[in-house]
């Protein structure tokens, strides 16, 4: 231990602290690799896949300015995990908004100009386009991924496919997800 402390002091004096942290992270990673499978499963089980998916999408594209998952609760959509500015729309009746329209119409909605659509419920005055992708289990829509962008016509077919694939991956977890 004394040797380790001296090494840290020497590295700090030589402005190598960041290098030391990287070395420590690498050592920790190699220790995790050595863990028994049950311990790895336990660590992985503590990660919420719905929150992880939201974070992944939010960090994927610079023009994904708000990403959230709404979970269907009968005739409402209830906000689950999200990244971006807070929204007052934590519960949306399915007869309102673009999010509600995606459920009613049972399809992906890629809206290039939100201000040109009467169904749009403004969460932010800077939002210019919106992509809403239903999350399905069988024939039932159990929720949706909603993405807002401050750029007009931000979302392409590739964005639709990416978000649809993520929705398919998390569907089982959304069904079990508890917003409380």
Question: How does this structure look, described?
Answer:
With 180 residues, the chain is an alpha+beta fold. The protein folds into 2 domains: 2-44, no CATH class; 49-176, 2-Layer Sandwich (Beta-Lactamase), CATH 3.30.450.40. 44% of the residues lie in helices and 23% in strands. It has helices at 2-13, 17-33, 37-45, 49-60, 97-105, 157-176; strands spanning 66-73, 76-83, 91-93, 109-111, 129-137, 140-149. The protein has a 6-stranded antiparallel β-sheet. A hairpin with a 2-residue loop joins strand 5 and strand 6. Helix 4 runs antiparallel to helix 6. 27% of the residues are buried.
Name the features.
disordered N terminus, 180 residues, 6 strands, Beta-Lactamase, alpha+beta, 2 domains, 23% strand, single chain, 6-stranded antiparallel β-sheet
User: In CATH, what is the class of the largest domain?
Assistant: Alpha Beta
Count of individual beta strands: 6
As for the CATH topology of the largest domain, it is: Beta-Lactamase
Helix content: 40-55%
Helices and strands: which structural class? alpha+beta
* Rg, nearest Å: 21 Å
Q: How big a fraction of the residues is strand?
A: 15-25%
Number of helices, counting only DSSP H or I runs of 4 residues or more: 6
Could you spell the SSE succession in H and E letters? HHHHEEEHEEEH
Rough outline: globular
Q: How many separate structural domains?
A: 2
Secondary structure layout plus pairing:
Blueprint: H1 2-13, H2 17-33, H3 37-45, H4 49-60, E1 66-73, E2 76-83, E3 91-93, H5 97-105, E4 109-111, E5 129-137, E6 140-149, H6 157-176
Antiparallel strand pairs: 1-2, 1-6, 2-3, 4-5, 5-6
Helix pairs in contact: 4-6
